[in-house]
Design brief:
single chain; 148 residues; D-tyrosyl-trna(Tyr) Deacylase, Chain: A; six-stranded mixed β-sheet; 8 strands
Length: 148
């Protein structure tokens, strides 16, 4: 799995002008699922994300976790995180999992987040979405479970 985690002051997802998910301070997580991913991979990734200490403490140091700030999560499926641009100029997405497997693991990842975060919102798997965010910091981290 691959994730782009952005610390946000707020974020939302719109589909055809309708907001389907919105949060205040917390994480916007763009999530990609690959061929070899499993529920174990999802648990590993969520475990790392929920323990990240990337929010400022009272001294201005990045020392607080999502739970410590009472943050929210917005998870958006993003198969394009598996883009391969080695050949030519048109990306290949053959490294991304098939939609049925990707959706299952996306939903499983969201369920893990909901077990430990009070406010979790999502986009809509497979939909064309407009993602709006105010990146706080800005602070953005890319994680790949192959490197965790």
């Amino acid at each position: 799995m691959r994730a782009v985690i952005q610390c946000v002051s707020e974020a939302r997802v719109d589909i055809v002008g309708e907001t389907v998910g919105a949060i205040g301070p917390g994480f916007l997580i763009l999530l990609g699922v690959g061929h070899n991913d499993s529920e174990e991979t999802a648990r590993k990734l969520w475990g790392k994300i929920e323990r990240l200490r990337v929010f400022d403490d009272e001294s201005g140091k990045t020392n607080l976790s999502l739970a410590a700030i009472g943050g929210s999560v917005l998870v958006v499926s993003q198969f394009t995180l598996y883009a391969n641009c080695k050949k030519g100029n048109r990306p290949s997405f053959t490294d991304a999992a098939a939609p049925d497997k990707a959706n299952q693991l996306y939903e499983y990842f969201v369920s893990l987040a909901r077990m430990s975060v009070e406010h979790v919102e999502t986009g809509r798997f497979g939909a064309m979405m407009d993602v709006h965010l105010v990146n706080h910091g800005p602070f953005t981290i890319c994680l790949d479970t192959d490197n965790l």
